[in-house]
Amino acid sequence: MSRIARKQQKNLIQAIAIQRMWRLFELAKSEYAEHPDRSERYVQLIRNISMRNRMSIPREIKNRICKHCYAFLVPGNNARYRLKDGYIVVSCQRCGKEMRYPYKKLK
Q1: What is the pLDDT along the chain (107 residues), one digit of tens a residue?
Q2: What is the 3-state secondary structure (H, E, C) of the chain?
Q3: Residue 39 annotated as binding site
Q4: Burial of residue 84, with CB atoms counted within 10 A of its CB: 0-12 exposed, 13-18 middle, 19 or more buried
Q5: Is 95 known as a binding-site position?
Q6: Which domains does the chain have, with CATH numbers?
Q7: Long-range contacts for 44-51 (Cβ within 8 Å, ≥24 apart)?
Q8: CA-to-CA distance for 53 and 55, rounded, in angstroms?
Q9: Has 102 been labeled as part of a binding site?
Q10: What CA–CA distance (Å, rounded) separates 45 from 53?
Q11: CA-CA-CA-CA torsion for 57, 39, 10, 60, nearest 10 degrees?
């Protein structure tokens, strides 16, 4: 297999992996209300896909997953979002850890 063909195949595999991660994320959002354990499983599958293909999870998905216990975070249910000193502070209610994401203040 030539170098170009391998590169095209890798790009195709990564595109499929990203599609699957987004689909699992949408399923996790919709299933959380009735089956929170299913949404935890979907998060686990997202992580497995990203590790298997050695690619990062998209930022929008990554911000909704606890970095410590890998719980699916839903604002108001199992996560608390606060704005503090230029950061969004997300507190996981399951493990008690906090994640901080910077944001730009409007001038």
Answers
A1: 788 889 999 999 999 999 999 999 999 999 999 999 999 999 999 999 999 999 999 999 999 999 999 999 999 999 999 999 999 999 999 999 999 999 876 66
A2: CCHHHHHHHHHHHHHHHHHHHHHHHHHHHHHCCCCHHHHHHHHHHHHHHHHHCCCCCCHHHHCCECCCCCCECCECCCEEEEEECCEEEEEECCCCCEEEEECCCCC
A3: no
A4: exposed
A5: yes
A6: 3-102 (1.20.5.420)
A7: 44/70, 46/21, 49/17, 49/20, 49/21, 49/24, 50/17, 50/21
A8: 6
A9: no
A10: 12
A11: -30
Residue 97 annotated in ligand binding: no
User: What six digits make up the tokens of 58?
Assistant: 């998209």
CA distance 13 to 90: 32
Q: pTM of the predicted model, to two decimals?
A: 0.88
CA separation for the pair 45, 42 (Å, rounded)? 5
